[in-house]
TrEMBL record:
This is Mos1 transposase HTH domain-containing protein. Residues 7-51 form the Mos1 transposase HTH domain. Signal peptide: none annotated. It comes from Trachymyrmex septentrionalis. It comes from the Eukaryota.
Length: 130
């Protein structure tokens, strides 16, 4: 059963007057391993008590992806992708971790190097966009 189905069942049992503990027991006896946790049941019962709540997920604001890809950086400063990759990895001592470039060691020397390289590379770009 999907999460949305669990919510409808929780709402149904809540409207019948069952407590979160009893709802959890009913779900466990019916759904066994796929039953939601007690914390989830308790959360949704509290939501339904607050007022008319939809079982659907609320729309979340769209956050733009702030990460820059190596290709985008290369296009912005008109250099090759391999040069951008080399600058990030060797000069700025960053490594790609979970699709993000993160500093390996963040000490004063690497902070200063990162700041200096960023200002050299992006100083002109930020002035062009203004």
């Amino acid at each position: 059963m999907e999460k949305i189905g669990h919510r409808y069942v929780i709402q149904y049992f809540h409207l019948k007057g069952l407590s979160p503990t009893n709802i959890k027991a009913e779900l466990d006896s019916t759904l066994e391993e796929s039953a939601p946790s007690f914390t989830t049941v308790k959360y949704w019962v509290a939501e339904f008590k607050r007022g008319p709540t939809s079982c659907e997920d609320e729309h979340r604001c769209d956050r733009s992806d702030r990460r820059l890809q190596v290709r985008e950086l290369a296009d912005m400063v008109n250099i090759s992708k391999s040069a951008v990759h080399r600058i990030l990895a060797e000069n700025l001592e960053m490594r790609k971790l979970c699709a993000r470039w993160v500093p390996r060691l963040l000490n004063n020397r690497t902070k200063a190097a990162s700041r200096g390289c960023f200002n050299r590379v992006f100083g002109d770009v930020s002035q062009q966009q203004s």
